[in-house]
Amino acid sequence: MAKIGLVIDEGADLTKEIxxxxxxxxxxxxxxWPEIEDLPGENTFQKMRxxxxxxxxxxxxxxxxxxxxxxxxxxxxxxxxKELICITITSxxxxxxxxxxxxxxxxxxxxxxxxxxxxxxxxxxxxxxLVLRAIDLIExxxxxxxxxxxYLEAFRPMILLRGILKxxxxxxASGRISSTVANLIRRMEKIGLRPMLxxxxxxxxxxxxxxxxxxxxxxxxxxFREKTKKILSQNKKIRIAITHGDNLEAAQRLKxxxxxxxxxxxxxxxxxxxxxxxxxVGPDALVLAWSEI
Length: 293
Known about the structure:
Layout: E1 2-9, H1 16-21, E2 25-27, E3 30-32, H2 44-53, E4 61-63, H3 67-78, E5 81-88, H4 96-105, H5 109-112, E6 115-119, H6 124-140, H7 145-155, E7 160-164, H8 169-174, H9 179-190, E8 194-200, E9 203-210, H10 216-233, E10 238-244, H11 248-261, E11 265-272, H12 275-281, E12 286-292
Parallel strand pairs: 1-2, 1-5, 5-6, 10-11
Antiparallel strand pairs: 3-4, 7-8, 7-12, 8-9, 10-12
């Protein structure tokens, strides 16, 4: 039996290859949007585009997994591992962390002390990078689960995330921003200003505006280059991950821009944004997260 296993939720946006390679158990996040279920499309973003074309005005509703969802997964992982680390999407926007904690309390007493649940205070590729750091430490085999958990708690603030939306209409439809703010964002974009979102202390918020950027990949590249200039000048290495709202072309372009101009950067994965964030950021959104390694 292996020593330490991982449990995560879908919010980490890790690829299928990473999940299978490291025997990670993933707890699904829930979304209800019956109006688009039968629309054509291979993913939620394609269905959202189709809903727009057809004039469907409804909005997807998401909810956290139940404690039982986590309990079933924890028990499965205990069949393969002695100790478990569970990493969840930020508790500031989801009750997923709370569900995981409740599930732990339903385990047998001797197992409860072997489960360590960490609120990532992040999401999408930012949460994914935290999971990858956990994998690094598990693979080294030098620390127990509790030591790794404490290290990850201290490491969380070192992960930075930036994202840009193609259109704020989905945030507006969800009630997260007002129509006034949404219209202000649209006017700014028309004159070449690109409002940028980030996560601070687990909360998604506006973190700045990029100017002189012809498109979203360029704006994110400029932000990344600016924020990492000092680290890269010291020959330190940076790990990044990219997620997108069904716009692989833009994600690949961002990856190429970083690879061509900046050395010492490891691109770990590119993947779709999960449904929980997807219904808020909408199609063609682009998200970049990074951390020093």
